[in-house]
Specification:
The complex is a heterodimer. Chain A is α/β, with parallel strands linked by helices. Chain A contains three helices and six strands; from the N terminus they run βββαβααββ. Helices cover about 15% and strands about 20% of the residues of chain A. A six-stranded mixed β-sheet of chain A has the order 1-3-2-6-4-5. Chain B has 14 helices and eleven strands. In chain B, a hairpin with a 2-residue loop joins β7 and β8. The relative contact order of chain B is 0.20. The mean pLDDT of chain B is about 95. Classes of the chains: A alpha/beta, B alpha+beta. The interface between A and B is medium-sized, with 15 and 24 residues.
C-alpha cells in the first residue's frame, strides 16, 4: 500500500516516507516542523505524539533506516536516557518529535517502531 | 514566582543521595528521587511490584475504600489485559467531537467566570470543570456531574475531613446495577459487558475500575487547573506570549503539568528483600517513586524551579512512566491545553485576589503544589 500526501508547500522542504509495521508506506511531500508533527498531522499509525513534542511521553518512536542515520544524527542524552527503556530499539531509534525537518533530509525514510 | 506555591522540597535530599529514607503510616519507605532512577524503577515491575491492593497510593487507602483498584494495583501480564478493557474510553479525548465539547465547556465556564466580580477557582471553577469533563470521558449524561461535584476536591481526603469513599462506592454499585439491567454505551455498561481472560469481571473488579476512575483523576486535575490560573495571574505577559505563539500552548501545558506534578509519588512493593540504592527494603515493604522529585532533577532540567513555558525538551514524568502510565493523560492534557487556549481567546487578564496554599505535610517533607482556595477576578477580552 502506498499513499502520497502533499501538504502546502514551503519551498525546498523535504519529502519523507513513513513505513508502518504492517508495511504501509506513506510519502509526505513539502514537510515542515518535526517528524512527529507531520506524522500526527497525517495520521501515521503508531505515532501518537501525546505530549506535543517535548520528549516526555515516548509515543513517537521511529527507526531511521541505516543509510539515513548519519544525516539525521544521534539522540541527545535526554532522548537517549528515555530510549534506553523502550522496547523494539534499533541503532536508528529516535523519538520523531526530536527530529527537525530540514532540506537536507529530502528523501528520508523512517519506520514506525512496532508497539510492544 | 513569589506566589506560585512551589518550592522543591526534595532538593536537599537529592544532594544527599539517590533516596530519601522516610516513613508513611508508620512504615519505612525509601523515596527514589532522581529522574533516571525513578524511570528505571517504574519499568522494573518484578523488583518493584504493583501487586499490593490498597498500598500503591501512599498513604495507604485501606481505610477509605473496600476494593482493589484496577488496573493500577496489578502487575503485567494481567495488568495488560485489565488495562485493555478500559483503554478505548481513555483514548476518546483525541476524537475531534470530544475536543469540541471540551472547548465549548471551558468556553462556557470561563465566560461565566468573566461575568462575576470574583470567582473562587477551586470550588467554583476547577471542580465543576473536572466533573463535567469526566462525563465526556465516561460517556455519561452531563447531569451526573452534579453528584460528583459534591464529592469535593478529593473523594477520600477532602478538606471537610470526611471521606466520600463509601458514598462513591454505593453510587457505583447503583450505576453497575442499572448498566447490567439496561446496558448502553457508557463506561459502566462497558464494565458489566467486559471480559477478562475469557470470563466476565467480578463486581469487585468493576468497582475497582470505577474507584480509580473517580478518585485518581480528581484532585490531580483540580489542583493543576488552580495552579495554571494562579500562574497566569502572576505572569500577565504569559497570555500575550501564548497569543503570539499559539504552538507554545503545547509546551506551556507540559511545563505547567511538570511544575504542578499533582501526584507527588506512588508506591511499589518489593516482593523479596531488595537493596534500593544502598537501603535494604524488606520483602513486602514499600518504596516510593517520587515523580515530584524526578521532575525537578537538576541534572536533567535547567533551573527546575522556574516555569519556562517554552521548555523543550521536557522529559517530565508527571503522568508516571512505563506500563502504568496515567490512563487519563490525554484527557488531562486536553483540559490544560484548552484552558490556556480559551484564556488567550476570551480573557484579557486574571487578577489574584486571595490565595491559600494547600500543604502536603509528611514526616520528612512539606509540599505545596495546590490551593485550598484561590480567588481571582477574570476580565473578558475587549470585544
Amino acid at each position: 500500500m502506498l499513499a502520497v500526501i502533499e501538504t502546502t508547500p514551503p519551498i525546498n522542504m523535504p519529502t519523507v516516507t513513513f513505513i508502518t509495521p504492517d508495511g504501509k508506506q506513506t510519502v509526505i511531500k513539502n514537510t515542515d516542523g518535526t517528524l512527529m508533527d507531520i506524522a500526527t498531522e497525517n495520521s501515521i499509525e503508531g505515532i501518537e505524539g501525546a505530549c506535543g513534542g517535548v520528549c516526555s511521553c515516548a509515543t513517537c518512536h521511529i527507526h531511521v533506516t541505516p543509510e539515513w542515520i548519519e544525516r539525521v544524527g544521534p539522540a541527545d542524552e535526554t532522548e537517549q536516557d528515555m530510549l534506553e527503556f523502550e522496547e523494539a530499539t534499533h541503532p536508528g531509534s529516535r523519538f520523531s518529535c526530536q527530529v527537525e525537518l530540514t532540506p537536507d533530509l529530502d528523501g528520508l525514510i523512517v519506520e514506525v517502531a512496532p508497539l510492544s | 514566582m513569589s506566589h506560585c506555591p512551589y518550592h522543591d522540597p526534595f532538593k536537599d535530599a537529592r544532594k544527599k543521595g539517590p533516596v530519601l529514607p522516610t516513613q508513611f503510616d508508620g512504615e519505612p519507605v525509601p523515596m527514589i528521587l532522581g529522574l533516571k532512577d525513578v524511570r528505571k524503577a517504574a519499568r522494573d515491575f518484578k523488583t518493584f511490584s504493583s501487586n499490593a491492593p490498597f498500598r500503591i497510593p501512599i498513604p495507604a487507602e485501606e481505610d477509605v475504600r473496600s476494593v482493589r483498584q484496577f488496573p493500577l494495583e496489578v502487575d503485567p501480564p494481567d495488568h495488560t489485559d485489565y488495562r485493555k478493557i478500559v483503554e478505548p474510553f481513555f483514548k476518546r479525548p483525541t476524537q475531534p467531537e470530544y475536543i469540541t465539547r471540551v472547548e465549548n465547556l471551558i468556553g462556557e465556564i470561563l465566560t461565566d467566570a468573566c461575568q462575576r466580580d470574583s470567582i473562587e477557582i477551586v470550588r467554583e471553577f476547577a471542580i465543576p470543570l473536572q466533573s463535567r469533563a469526566l462525563t465526556y470521558l465516561l460517556n455519561m449524561p452531563e447531569s451526573e456531574a452534579n453528584v460528583w461535584i459534591q464529592w469535593g476536591t478529593h473523594v477520600f481526603r477532602d478538606e471537610s475531613g470526611v471521606s466520600k469513599g463509601a458514598e462513591m462506592e454505593a453510587y457505583c454499585h447503583q450505576l453497575l446495577d442499572s448498566a447490567a439491567a439496561n446496558p448502553g454505551d457508557d463506561f459502566f455498561s462497558a464494565l458489566v459487558q467486559a471480559e477478562f481472560q475469557g470470563r466476565p469481571l467480578t463486581r469487585d473488579e468493576m468497582l475497582g475500575f470505577a474507584n480509580i476512575t473517580f478518585a485518581g483523576g480528581r484532585d490531580t486535575i483540580i489542583n493543576t487547573v488552580a495552579v495554571v490560573i494562579a500562574y497566569i495571574a502572576e505572569h500577565p505577559s504569559a497570555l500575550d506570549t501564548l497569543r503570539e505563539n499559539p504552538k507554545m500552548i503545547l509546551t506551556a501545558t507540559e511545563e505547567l503539568i511538570r511544575f504542578t506534578t499533582p501526584l507527588t509519588h506512588i508506591g511499589r512493593v518489593c516482593p523479596v528483600d531488595t537493596d534500593v540504592h544502598g537501603k535494604t527494603v524488606k520483602a513486602g515493604d514499600l518504596v516510593s517513586l517520587c515523580w515530584a522529585s524526578a521532575n525537578f532533577d537538576e541534572t536533567v532540567f535547567d533551573s527546575p524551579e522556574e516555569v519556562r513555558i517554552d521548555r523543550k525538551p521536557n522529559p517530565h514524568i508527571a503522568f508516571g512512566n512505563g506500563t502504568h502510565n496515567c490512563l487519563g493523560a490525554p484527557h488531562s492534557r486536553l483540559l490544560v491545553r484548552t484552558l490556556l487556549r480559551k484564556l488567550c481567546e476570551l480573557t484579557s487578564s486574571v487578577k489574584l485576589i486571595e490565595a491559600t496554599p494547600k500543604v502536603e505535610q509528611e514526616a520528612d517533607y512539606e509540599r505545596n503544589n495546590a490551593y485550598e482556595s484561590l480567588t481571582v477576578q477574570i476580565t473578558p477580552s475587549s470585544p
